[in-house]
Design brief:
Among the domains are: 52 residues, no CATH class; 96 residues, Probable tRNA modification gtpase trme, domain 1 (Gyrase A, domain 2, 2-Layer Sandwich), CATH 3.30.1360. The strands form 3 sheets. The protein has a 6-stranded mixed sheet with strand order 10-11-12-9-3-13, with helices on both faces. Strands 5-6-7-4-8 form a 5-stranded antiparallel sheet, with no helix packed on it. It has 3 helices and 13 strands; from the N terminus they run βββββββββαβββαβα. The chain is globular and about 45 Å long. The protein is mainly beta. 13% of the residues lie in helices and 38% in strands.
Length: 212
């Protein structure tokens, strides 16, 4: 007997999806109607994320050569982000439409369903972020991409500064799944003056130049 499981994102965005699909039992929104050219909020919670912990991260295969040496550094490849958190911990974030096979070792833990993941793209991303985050994500001494840990809207987060321009950029964040509702509402409230609207994963891929 085949059992079809429906997996739901913890994120609820108000908008009219115009491009959708089913992937790994999840409904995926690739685009929304009337998204406009302003600030966008994107749900990325469906993409696979792995926590990696080991006393010697450099020996982890096949990702040993992709794990950055210093905390805060990010390795970016096609459809993959690898961020170093500390001396013994890293996190991998996959953006392929095909679910990757996680290495079956004690160093890896699948944390996809335990977290909410969002991206903010477009103009005024970091202006908006200043309203809810005391961390200086626009620090000119730090060149994207880089990863920081700290509170965003009073919630402990991993903050991925992926792109930053004079007018905006691309910021992704992950936090515990239970904060999804409050986090989205906080972003929508802080971003109201910047005309924040929901968008699908396509705009995130396009912003980073990843395509489909």
């Amino acid at each position: 007997m085949t059992i079809n499981l429906e997996r739901r994102s913890p994120v609820k965005l108000k908008g009219r999806p115009v491009k959708t699909g089913i992937r790994e039992g999840r409904q995926i929104v690739s685009g929304y109607a009337g998204a406009g050219k302003g600030l966008h909020i994107v749900d990325l919670s469906h993409f696979s994320r792995w926590d990696i912990q080991d006393k010697r991260l450099s020996r982890i295969q096949p990702y040993g050569d992709m794990i950055p040496e210093k905390p805060g550094q990010i390795f970016m490849d096609k459809h993959l982000l690898m961020g170093r958190l500390n001396a013994t911990q890293a996190v991998a974030w996959h953006f392929s439409e095909l679910k990757p096979d996680m290495p079956q070792t004690q160093a890896f833990t699948d944390i996809t369903d335990a977290a909410v993941a969002l991206a903010l793209t477009g103009p005024a991303v970091y202006d908006m972020a200043e309203k809810v985050c005391a961390l200086d994500l626009a620090d000119p001494l730090k060149t994207p991409p880089f990863l920081v840990q700290g509170p965003f809207s009073h919630v402990p987060c991993h903050l991925w500064v992926l792109d930053r321009t004079d007018s905006g950029g691309c910021l992704a964040l992950t936090c515990s799944r239970g904060y999804a509702h409050d986090m989205v509402n906080s972003i929508l409230e802080a971003g109201a003056e910047y005309n924040v609207t929901p968008e699908g994963e396509d705009i995130f891929r396009a912003w980073l130049g990843w395509g489909g």
